[in-house]
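Provenance

Sequences were taken from public entries as deposited. Structures were produced by running a predictor on each sequence independently, with no templates supplied. The record for RCC1 domain-containing protein 1 isoform X2 from Frankliniella occidentalis is shown for reference.
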Amino acid sequence: MSFYYCGWNGCGQVSGHPMIISKPAKLSFDGPIVNVSCTWSVLAVIAGKSMTFMGFVENNINVRREIFLSNSAQPIHLSSCQSRTLVACSKGNCYDYSPESNTLRQLVKFTTSELDPEESASVDNSSIIKVSCSDYGCLALSKSGRVFTIPSPLVLPGLVVTDIACGNEHYALLTKCGLVYTWGSGSRGQLGHGDLEPEEKPRLVEALAGMQVCCISVGAWHNAAVTSSGDLYTWGWGTDGQLGIDDSVTDDDHDHRPTASKKLKTDAQVSVLQERNEKYRGIVLGCPSPVDTSADVTAVSCGSRHTVVLLVDGTIWGCGWNAYGQLACPPEECIRSIYLRRAA
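Predicted structure for RCC1 domain-containing protein 1 isoform X2:
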């Protein structure tokens, strides 16, 4: 089975190809491809009964390692960040892989110490089906719809969760009823609550509450959601056009530096924001906003600073940062795109 890769290849993730891959390169594996996860330096693939890690592994570039789990367990889902890869397996266990040291360890059963006795008795510790990780935190989802901020269970009374996602400093989940909840840092509008405040616990994204959301994805500081009717919504920090919405901000506006103490409330858009003496470029959408597409959207995936969607007609479109060919077009042709453009 095969898939295609484009973007940064400076660590040798795809052997025999240049540092920047702007024309999608075909990679073939034995057996069905179950899951793929990319970081800046490592490409991780589940194919058949094994996992393959390519790129910067064991402190060297151009390395390829194939990993098998013990006790006949098969990997079913993985998620990678710069420092680690989390793996869920067919037996419901969760593993932690370190590319730097090429070591794999099984995580112990997730604790129920933070739950009351009735809740503790109902926690499904033994069937993790999906994981998501960043360098700031990790999530796991059980077959019964429980979420863990590894290793502790997240108390969500009455909610059955079907999907989870980690950003750089925030998290998102999708429920069986099609509701989206977010929490963590909100400094770039990434929580979608119409403000820039943090949330310690999952909070409903009310702007999407009247829609049946079927797919979510989280980038570094932005998010995307697809509804059952095929509509695409994005929100958060649009530094390089990854929201797919015209920011209408001039270059002069990019140099605007409001005081660090200034707090901005918004129901739709914050144009340029300065916090902690950092310069912010682009727009910040504090609430989910619709994105124009040429056909209904069936899936979406967010990179750190770009977004890619699959349309019902089978075409793939992307927007955002393209310095390394992430949007499947040469950087000299387009360094960034604020609109969705069709992949070559």
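The chain has two helices and 26 strands.
Helices lie at 117-122, 251-254.
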